[in-house]
C-alpha cells in the first residue's frame, strides 16, 4: 500500500505561550545597540544639563478670611452687613488665579518683554540687569511673538536687525517703527556693562503671557482646617518669580480693598438717600402728633385722664352731700307743713339760718309742751306761743324754699360737670388709640433714622480703613530647583537610552517582512526536516568533517531524518509517469518492507531566493551521506549561478552537466571526485548555458538521473531558487524527495504563500523544509544550540569574524 509522508501539525490553533527568556535573549543579543543608546542618551543628558537654564520653584503663603471656618465671627444679623458678602477660601483661590489680576501684574512688571544675552552655548535672562528698557510707543499687531536682535554699539546707539535681515543703527530714546508697532529703547544704569554685546528682545502679546502665567500658577489650600493658601509658580529667574507673586498678592489685596470700598460707598450713598427720605417722613409724623395734641388739648393723656377721674369722684361726693342736704331740707319742710310736735334733726344742713330757725321752733314746741302739761290747750296763754310757732314755721318755710332752690341748682350743676368729665373719660380710648398710632409711626421712623445714622458712621469708619483681607504669612521665597533635576534627567536618559533601541528592535521585528520563528512555517502544515544553527565558519564550507562544530552534528541529524523521509516517501505523479516511460516502475514499496536494489535515492535542494543556504546545505548533506558509507554524488544544477564546485575547490573549466546535456559525451567524463570526502563525487555545472531551462527539459536529463541512480546510493541535486526561475520545478520530475531551504531572518514572509501554493498543488515530490541559519540569541527562537559540548578544540574567531559578529548585533 501507499504511505504518504507524515505532515506536521498546525500550531496556529495551539495557544502561544510567551517565552520570556527567549524574548529577553533576543534583546540582550543586541547589547551593543543598547550600550550605544545609553552613551548617546548620557551625552545628551550631560549636554542638556549644561546648556539648560534651571527653573526654580517660587512660593508664598497667605491667610484669608473664611466665614465657613469661622462662624463665630459672623454678625448677629448678617443681613445688615452691607459691606461684605460671606467669604470662603475656595472662592479666594479662584480670584487669585483670575486673568484680571494676573494681567494686571504682567503689565505692571512688563513681563511680556524679555531680555536675553546670547552666549556661546546657552543664554542668560537679563531681568534684573537689562542694559535698556523696551517701551511700546504705539502698539500694533502682536498676535505672534516677536524677537529683536540688538547689538549695543556704544552708550548712545544700538544696531538692530529688521525682518529683511538688514541692520540699522538707532539712537536710544528714538522711536522705531516695526510691523508690531512703534517702540523705543531707554538706557539703564547697566548699559556700560554690555557695550558690544548682542541681546535678544522678546516681545509677546500680554494676553498670551498672562495665559502662560495662569497655567504655571498653582494655588491651593495648604491645610483643610485653616484658610491658609499656598501660591506657587516656576521661573528661570528667581527675582522675577518673587516679584510676580508679591505683586499678585498686592494686587489681590488692592482689589479686595477697592471692592470693599466700592460696596461701602454704595451702601453709604443708599443710607444717605434713605436718611433724606426718613427726615421728611419723621418731620411729618412729629407735626401730626403736635397738631393732634393741640386739637384735643392733650398735654399728658395719662395725667389728664387721672384728673378727669378725680374730678368725677369729687363731683359724686359733692352730689352726695347735696342729696343729703336736700333730704334734710325736705324733712324739715314736711315737718313745717304738718302738725307734728317733734321737730326734725338739722344734721347735714349747712345753712345756719335754717338751723337757728329749726332750733327756735324746737324750743317753742318744748315750751308749748311744758304748758300743756299744766294748762289746757285752749288757754289764751297758748296764743303767743302758737303765733311764735306759726311765725317760725313761716320763716322756716321761706328758708327751706331758698335753701332747696340753692341745693337743686348745685345738684344740677354738679350733674352737668360730672357728665362732661364722664364724656371725656369715655373719649380717652379713642384718643389714646389715635395718639398711639401717630406716636408709633413717629417712633418707628425715629428708630430707623437713628439706626441708619449709626450704620452710616460705622461704614464711614470702614471706608476710611485700608486693612486687606489677606494676611501675608510668608512673602515670596525661592525654593529648590524644579527643573532640571539630575536624578530625573538621568532616569529619562536611561529610559530613552534603553527605550529607543528597544523600539528599534521591536518595530524592526514587527514590521520586518522576514521569517524569524518556526511558528511562521508550522502554520503551512509542511513537514520540517530539521534546523541548522548559524555558525561563522569562514571559508570552510564543508563542516561535517570537523567534529568540533555543532553544525556538523546537526547535519548528521538531518542525514538520519532524510533517510527516514526516503523510507516513507510516496511516489510523485511526475516521477511515476517518468519511470513508466522507461519501463522501470518505482513506487513506494514500504508496505513490502524493501527498496528496489540498485536504485539510488534522488534528493533535490531548492529555496525561494538566492543566499538562503541551499548550496551549503546540499553540499554538507552530501558530504555527511558519503561519510556514513553511502556512495553519493552531488549535481551542481544551478546552471545560472553555480557554487558547489567552489565549495569543494574544483576547477571551473572541467566538463560538466551543461556539456553532458548539450553534447553526446559520456557520463564518466563529467564526474569528478570531491577531493574532500571519500565516496563523494561531484558533477559540476560546466560552461554556463544561455538557455538552462530548455536544456533541462531534454530527455538526456532523465537519462542522466537514471544512470546516476544505478551507480550511486544518493543523488543530491543543488537547484536554482524556485521563486526566481522554473529550473527547480523541471529538475523535480526525477526527484524522490524535495528539500526546501528557508533561512531565518532572510527569507521573506511573503514567500510563505508561495510555499503553501506549491505544497498544496504538489509541485515538488515529498516536500520537506530545512530551517537554516538560526540565530537564537538574535531572534529569540531556536533550541539552545551552542558549542559547549565541543569546547575542547573550539575554533577561535578571527578579528574580521569578531568585528562582523559585533556589528551584526546592531
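^ C-alpha cells above, recovered residues below v
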Amino acid at each position: 500500500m501507499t504511505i504518504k509522508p507524515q505532515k506536521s501539525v498546525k500550531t496556529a490553533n495551539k495557544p502561544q505561550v510567551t517565552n520570556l527568556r527567549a524574548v529577553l535573549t533576543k534583546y540582550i543579543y543586541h547589547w551593543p545597540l543598547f550600550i550605544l543608546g545609553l552613551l548617546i542618551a548620557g551625552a545628551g543628558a550631560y549636554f542638556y544639563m549644561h546648556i539648560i537654564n534651571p527653573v526654580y520653584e517660587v512660593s508664598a503663603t497667605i491667610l484669608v478670611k473664611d466665614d465657613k471656618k469661622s462662624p463665630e465671627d459672623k454678625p448677629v444679623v448678617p443681613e445688615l452687613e452691607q459691606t461684605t458678602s460671606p467669604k470662603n477660601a475656595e472662592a479666594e483661590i479662584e480670584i487669585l488665579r483670575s486673568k484680571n489680576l494676573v494681567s494686571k501684574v504682567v503689565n505692571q512688571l512688563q513681563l511680556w518683554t524679555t531680555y536675553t544675552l546670547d552666549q556661546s552655548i546657552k543664554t542668560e535672562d537679563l531681568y534684573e540687569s537689562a542694559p535698556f528698557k523696551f517701551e511700546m510707543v504705539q502698539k500694533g499687531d502682536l498676535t505672534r511673538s516677536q524677537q529683536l536682535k540688538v547689538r549695543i554699539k556704544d552708550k548712545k546707539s544700538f544696531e538692530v536687525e529688521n525682518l529683511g535681515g538688514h541692520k540699522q543703527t538707532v539712537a536710544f530714546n528714538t522711536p522705531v517703527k516695526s510691523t508690531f508697532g512703534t517702540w523705543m529703547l531707554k538706557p539703564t544704569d547697566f548699559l556700560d556693562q554690555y557695550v558690544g554685546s548682542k541681546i535678544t528682545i522678546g516681545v509677546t502679546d500680554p494676553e498670551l503671557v498672562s495665559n502662560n502665567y495662569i497655567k504655571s500658577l498653582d494655588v491651593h489650600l495648604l491645610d483643610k482646617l485653616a484658610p491658609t493658601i499656598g501660591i506657587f509658580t516656576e521661573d528661570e529667574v528667581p527675582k522675577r518669580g518673587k516679584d510676580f507673586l508679591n505683586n499678585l498678592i498686592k494686587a489681590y489685596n488692592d482689589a479686595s480693598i477697592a471692592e470693599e470700598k466700592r460696596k461701602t460707598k454704595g451702601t453709604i450713598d443708599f443710607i444717605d438717600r434713605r436718611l433724606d427720605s426718613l427726615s421728611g417722613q419723621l418731620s411729618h409724623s412729629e407735626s401730626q402728633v403736635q397738631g393732634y395734641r393741640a386739637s384735643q388739648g392733650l398735654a399728658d393723656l395719662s395725667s389728664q385722664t387721672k384728673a378727669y377721674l378725680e374730678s368725677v369722684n369729687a363731683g359724686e361726693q359733692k352730689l352726695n352731700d347735696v342729696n343729703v342736704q336736700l333730704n334734710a331740707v325736705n324733712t324739715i319742710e314736711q315737718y313745717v307743713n304738718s302738725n307734728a310736735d317733734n321737730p326734725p334733726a338739722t344734721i347735714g344742713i349747712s345753712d345756719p339760718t335754717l338751723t337757728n330757725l329749726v332750733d327756735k321752733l324746737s324750743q317753742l314746741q318744748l315750751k308749748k309742751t311744758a304748758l300743756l302739761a299744766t294748762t289746757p290747750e285752749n288757754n289764751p296763754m297758748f296764743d303767743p306761743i302758737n303765733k311764735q310757732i306759726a311765725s317760725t314755721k313761716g320763716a322756716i318755710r321761706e328758708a327751706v324754699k331758698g335753701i332747696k332752690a340753692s341745693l337743686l341748682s348745685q345738684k344740677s350743676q354738679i350733674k352737668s360737670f360730672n357728665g362732661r368729665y364722664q364724656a371725656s373719660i369715655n373719649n380717652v380710648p379713642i384718643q389714646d388709640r389715635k395718639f398711639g398710632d401717630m406716636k408709633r409711626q413717629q417712633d418707628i421712623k425715629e428708630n430707623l433714622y437713628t439706626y441708619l445714622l449709626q450704620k452710616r458712621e460705622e461704614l464711614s469708619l470702614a471706608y476710611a480703613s485700608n486693612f486687606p483681607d489677606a494676611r501675608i504669612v510668608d512673602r515670596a521665597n525661592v525654593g529648590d530647583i524644579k527643573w532640571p533635576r539630575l536624578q530625573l534627567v538621568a532616569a529619562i536618559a536611561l529610559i530613552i537610552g534603553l527605550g529607543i533601541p528597544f523600539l528599534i528592535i521591536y518595530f524592526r521585528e514587527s514590521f520586518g517582512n522576514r521569517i524569524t520563528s518556526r511558528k511562521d512555517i508550522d502554520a503551512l502544515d509542511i513537514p520540517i526536516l530539521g534546523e541548522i544553527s548559524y555558525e561563522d565558519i569562514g571559508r570552510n564550507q564543508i563542516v561535517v568533517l570537523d567534529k568540533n562544530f555543532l553544525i556538523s552534528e546537526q547535519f548528521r541529524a538531518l542525514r538520519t531524518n532524510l533517510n527516514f523521509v526516503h523510507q516513507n516517501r510516496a511516489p510523485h505523479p511526475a516521477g511515476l509517469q517518468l519511470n513508466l516511460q522507461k519501463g522501470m516502475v518505482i513506487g513506494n514499496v514500504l508496505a513490502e518492507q524493501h527498496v528496489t536494489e540498485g536504485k539510488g535515492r534522488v534528493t533535490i535542494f531548492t529555496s525561494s531566493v538566492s543566499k538562503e543556504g541551499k548550496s551549503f546545505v546540499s553540499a554538507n548533506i552530501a558530504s555527511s551521506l558519503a561519510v556514513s558509507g553511502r556512495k553519493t554524488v552531488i549535481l551542481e544544477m544551478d546552471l545560472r549561478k553555480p557554487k558547489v564546485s567552489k565549495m569543494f575547490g574544483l576547477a571551473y573549466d572541467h566538463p560538466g552537466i551543461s556539456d553532458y546535456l548539450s553534447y553526446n559525451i559520456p557520463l564518466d567524463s563529467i564526474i569528478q571526485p570531491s577531493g574532500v570526502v571519500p565516496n563523494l563525487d561531484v558533477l559540476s555545472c560546466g560552461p554556463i548555458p544561455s538557455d538552462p531551462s530548455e536544456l533541462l527539459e531534454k530527455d538526456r536529463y532523465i537519462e542522466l538521473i537514471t544512470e546516476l541512480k544505478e551507480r550511486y546510493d544518493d543523488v543530491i541535486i543543488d537547484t536554482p531558487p524556485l521563486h526566481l526561475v522554473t529550473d527547480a520545478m523541471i529538475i523535480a520530475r526525477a526527484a524522490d524527495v524535495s528539500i526546501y531551504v528557508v533561512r531565518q531572518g532572510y527569507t521573506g514572509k511573503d514567500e510563505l504563500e508561495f510555499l503553501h501554493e506549491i505544497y498544496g498543488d504538489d509541485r515538488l515530490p515529498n516536500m520537506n523544509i530545512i530551517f537554516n541559519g538560526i540565530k537564537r540569541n538574535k531572534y529569540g527562537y531556536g533550541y539552545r544550540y551552542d558549542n559547549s559540548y565541543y569546547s575542547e578544540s573550539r575554533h577561535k574567531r578571527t578579528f574580521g569574524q569578531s568585528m562582523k559578529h559585533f556589528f551584526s548585533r546592531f
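The mean pLDDT is 79.
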